């Protein structure tokens, strides 16, 4: 059975992963509205990926004999200034999620919950990949730029990444 501290943190992480899925879906909608179909497709796929992260946590909690809870979710933002703004906010959000996962891992060590610690190693590695992915998108935007055909090229390249999510 999970200790109350760990269960509380896992349920909070479930809600955060669910929020992430909604955030990326809202960003996908904004991109679609801006005629950025590659970015919309990428962010929709990323939303599905975040939802699967939530389900993985949900299943783990239930398999321990505890009860996973779905908390109330805040409405994600749905207005953005540019495609760069979308991916800046995405990168910042992923760094926030990394900090939350790291705090959860720390709590597992403090509570000597090595089973949950082991389970969370996948998330630690996943967050490294997520931060790298979004940093590379921001780097691409900086290198290519968004003037003239740059926006078209950036969107096209981001769309190609939807197969890698």
Task: Produce the secondary structure layout.
Elements: H1 4-33, H2 37-63, H3 83-110, H4 114-144, H5 150-161
Helix pairs in contact: 1-2, 1-3, 2-5, 3-4, 4-5
Number of strands: 0
Distance between the termini: 33 Å
Helix content range = over 70%
Strand content: under 5%
Largest sheet composition = none
CATH structural class = Mainly Alpha
The name of the CATH topology is Ferritin
CATH homologous superfamily (4th level) name: Ferritin, core subunit, four-helix bundle
Task: Encode the helix/strand succession as letters.
Answer: HHHHH
Describe this structure in words.
- With 165 residues, the protein is mainly α.
- The chain has one domain (4-161): Ferritin, core subunit, four-helix bundle (Ferritin), CATH 1.20.1260.10.
- Helices cover 78% and strands 0% of the residues.
- The protein has 5 helices and no strands.
- The protein has helices at 4-33, 37-63, 83-110, 114-144, 150-161.
- It is elongated, with a radius of gyration of 17 Å.
Give the gist of this structure:
This protein has 165 residues and is mainly α. The chain is 78% helix and 0% strand.
Give keywords:
165 residues; mainly alpha; Ferritin; elongated; EC 1.16.3.2; identical protein binding; Ferritin-like; cytoplasm; ferrous iron binding
């Amino acid at each position: 059975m999970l200790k109350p501290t760990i269960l509380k943190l896992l349920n909070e992480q479930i809600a955060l992963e669910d929020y992430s899925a909604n955030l990326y879906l809202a960003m996908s909608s904004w991109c679609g509205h801006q005629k950025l179909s590659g970015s919309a497709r990428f962010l929709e796929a990323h939303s599905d990926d975040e939802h699967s992260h939530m389900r993985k946590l949900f299943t783990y909690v239930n398999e321990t004999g505890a009860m996973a809870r779905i908390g109330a979710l805040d409405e994600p933002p749905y207005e953005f200034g540019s495609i760069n703004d979308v991916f800046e906010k995405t990168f910042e959000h992923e760094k926030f999620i990394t900090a939350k996962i790291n705090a959860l891992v720390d709590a597992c060590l403090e509570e000597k919950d090595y089973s949950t610690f082991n389970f969370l190693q996948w998330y630690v590695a996943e967050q490294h990949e997520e931060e790298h992915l979004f940093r590379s998108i921001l780097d691409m935007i900086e290198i290519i730029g968004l003037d003239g055909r740059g926006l078209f090229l950036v969107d096209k390249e981001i769309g190609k990444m939807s197969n890698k999510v």
